[in-house]
Amino acid sequence: MKRSGALLLVPLAVLLSGCDLVVLSPAGDVAVQQRDLLVASTLLMLLIIVPVMALTVLFAWRYRQSSTTATYTPDWDHSTKLELVIWAAPLLVIICLGALTWLGTHLLDPYRRIDRIEPGQPVTQNHKPLKVEVVALDWKWLFIYPDYGIASVNELAAPVNQPIDFRITSSTVMNSFYIPALAGQIYAMPAMETKLHAVINRPGTYTGFSANYSGAGFSGMRFAFHGLSDQAFGEWVTQAKSAQGTLSRETYLELERPSENEPVRHYASVDPDLYGAILNLCVERGKMCMNEMMSIDAKGGLGLAGVRNTLPLQYDELSRRGAVFGNDPAYVASICTAEEAAASSRAARDTDAKYWPVRDLSPLRGAGLLGPGTGTRRADAEAPSLGLLRLEL
C-alpha cells in the first residue's frame, strides 16, 4: 500500500517539474509588489472558500440519510444569526479585497513612475532612469537605447537598482511585452505607445517573451534580460558600440520583415528619429506621419484637395503578409500647404485620366474658409465651407 501511494506521487512530481516559480520569486521590486498583492488577495478569498468547502463536507456527512444523531427539523426556514454570518463575512472580505486591489492597481500602474528602488530605499534625484524604446516585430524584439545611441535585437540589459522607463510599440500586430521577474505584462500595439516603469534588484539573466499570440513565429519571440552591475552594464554598452551595424530607416525596413528565431545582434548607432517614425507609421521616406496627419485634421483637414495626395508603396506591411483584399498599396505623401495638395491634384489629372470626379459640396456651410474660385476668405458663418474643395482643374 505504501509503495502504491509513492507511485501515485510520481506523475504529480513530473507535472510540477515543468513549473517556473519566477512569478512567486521575482527579482524586481514592482514584480515583488505584484506578487504580494496576488498572495494577499488569494488568502483573503480563501477565508471564505476554505470554510465553505469544509462545511460542505461536514454537512454532507452529518446530515446523511443513514445518520441517526443529526437533528431533524423539516419546518425550519430562518436563522437571523446564521444570516448575519453568511452575509457579513463575505461582505467584510469584499471590502478588504476591494481596498487592497484599488490601492495596489493605482500604486502599481505601469504608466506611473516608481517611487522606490526597494523597501526602505526611495527613488532620489541621483537615480537617473534608463530609457528603453521597445518595438515588437514579426517575430523578434527590438530595443533602442536613445541615451546611448545603440540598439539590440532579442537582448535587453539594465543596471541593478536603476529605474527603467520603457516606451513600447509594435510594427504590425498586437503583442505583449512581459518579463515575469521584472514586472507585469504590458501590450505593444501598432501606432500606439504604452509605458512601463520598473527596476531590477538582483543580478542575473531572466527570460522575456511575448504573452500574446501574434502568428507563426510567436513561439520564438523570446529574449534574454540581463540585470547587471554598473560596471558590467558599461561593458555591455561598449560591446554594443563596437558592433559594425547602423540601424537606419532602410536597415529597419529590412529588419521589420517577418523572420523567426533571430539571433542576438547589436547596432552601434541608431537613427535618432527612428522610434518616432515607427510609432507614427512613417519609416518609409516621404510618407506622412500619423502625428502630422492628425495635426492637419485638427486644423480642418485638406478635404478633396488631398484625395490625390498619395504615392505607391515600395514595401507594404499588408502585402508582405499575403493580403489580397483592398485597394492597391498606397500611403499619404508628405505635404506642407493646401496649395501643395492642389498642385498635386492637378498633376494627377494631367497624368491619370481616371481622376476622382469633383463633387458639389456647396450645401455644406462653415466659417473662415476660402470661397469657391474666389481666392478670398469668408469670415461669416454662412460661407460655403467646402466649396473651395471643388478644384478648378
TrEMBL record:
Molecular function terms, GO-annotated: copper ion binding; cytochrome bo3 ubiquinol oxidase activity; cytochrome-c oxidase activity; oxidoreductase activity, acting on diphenols and related substances as donors, oxygen as acceptor
Membrane-spanning parts: 37-61, 82-103
Sequence ranges assigned to domain Cytochrome oxidase subunit II copper A binding in this UniProt record: 127-239
UniProt-annotated location(s): Cell membrane
Keyword Endoplasmic reticulum (UniProt): no
A GO CC term assigned to this protein in UniProt: plasma membrane
Main location: membrane
Highest taxon of the lineage: Bacteria
Membership in a protein family: Belongs to the cytochrome c oxidase subunit 2 family.
PANTHER family, A to Z: CYTOCHROME BO(3) UBIQUINOL OXIDASE SUBUNIT 2, CYTOCHROME C OXIDASE, SUBUNIT II
Protein name according to UniProt: Ubiquinol oxidase polypeptide II
Source organism of this protein record: Mesorhizobium hawassense
Gene that this polypeptide is encoded by: cyoA
